[in-house]
Amino acid sequence: MPRGSLSNVLDASSKQENLVNKKPVTSLLRPIYSRMQSRSLVAGRVIVWPEATSAENATHQQRLHPSNACLAGTKRAGGDSGRITLDLTTNASSLVYSLYPGHPVVLTATNLTGRSLTAFEFYQPNVLPLFETTNGTSYSNVPDLHVAVACGPFTTTTSHDISPLLALLKDIKEYRPHVLILLGPLVDSSHPLIEEYRDSTYEELYQSRLNTVAEWCHLLKTSVVIVSSWREICGNPVYPTPPPFGSGKPYWTQKNPELATWYENVTFVWDPCTLRIGPFVMGLSSPDVLFQMSSEEINANCTGDRLARLCRHVLTAANFYPIHPPAESLPLDYPLWQDHAHFPSNRSPHCLVLPSRLRAFIKSVENVVCVNPGLITRPGSTAAGSYARLIFSIKDSSADLQESAMDVVSWAGDEKTATDSTKSGVTILGEVVQL
């Protein structure tokens, strides 16, 4: 199991308990195996109780269910950090929860026999504060920043034709954003026809598509950010995924001055990454964490928007991929996950981009604008997909911020939204565009 921090949920629990003695909340945690007749504070991670009886069955990942949920304890509470069954049914009529595999939680529970925790209340952790817009630099009178965000694959599943990619670039020509961010593979290693491709080498195919993007955006004077993908045919098949050329430019540009100029404003970054553009900070990650979370989440007595709730899980975990175990198709590397998947500096980005096959949306979740731009091509479909347009603006006067503070404004289908944070001074207006 990954070694993630429980500090967020522990801090939230301390505030909600309103502890007069102000002791560290970890000193109030009880070991999960302790016999507790009165409600006590326990912490750990939600996991699935193993039910497989054979090696063959053990290879299939079991789904979380109220009947097989258990809690893996934390050594910070003292005692054994093993696991114990979690009873979610005794108080089913009043218990409010939304849980996923690997979810770090703090809850009040009883344990009459020492063998099962009966849950009474799950505490809601706080979202980390936003990044400061100054970062040691004065950003007075900063012009609006226009950003386009698109996620591949950039061809349909029935051919290697790049018409969807060209349709995106033609739309970029009309919109003229300052920055174009591309996530997902340019040449998808899981494409159904990739093994039948014979027109060139995979590397030449990758170079051709990347050159197309670089040349097009160079002529438009649009900066490009390429987020690495573990599904890239010429990339590193691991998540988190390092940039394909390290911190440099593609090697094939070294002896070609014209090609080199195309890549002057092209930046290659990790997947996931936290990207600062002037005063604005964006979080980017390409795995479909929202779809997996929606498939494996269990909940009871919850209200409100489900997609916003899933985004909040990512924000409160302060991790781009908090699910454990990961999806079977995702080659997760835990040492890299520990180094690159957590939000840096214990801060939340102003905008969090989580591409998914779920319905595209732009939502404000506790002052963080969460974006699912959709996919340029939908799985199993020849129809064109979508991408997101975002406009970032900033105000440098606290008085102006108080006067201009606005609530979340939504248009039809949540395709457009605007949000303003009086703490960060960042306003983001966005829309999801169908190609």
From TrEMBL:
GO-annotated molecular function: DNA binding
Subcellular location: Nucleus
InterPro entries: DNA_pol_a/d/e_bsu, DNA_pol_alpha_bsu
Major subcellular site: nucleus
Keyword Nucleus among record annotations: yes
Ranges where the DNA polymerase alpha/delta/epsilon subunit B domain occurs: 147-363
PANTHER family, per the entry: DNA POLYMERASE 2 ALPHA 70 KDA SUBUNIT, DNA POLYMERASE ALPHA SUBUNIT B
Protein name (database record): DNA polymerase alpha subunit B
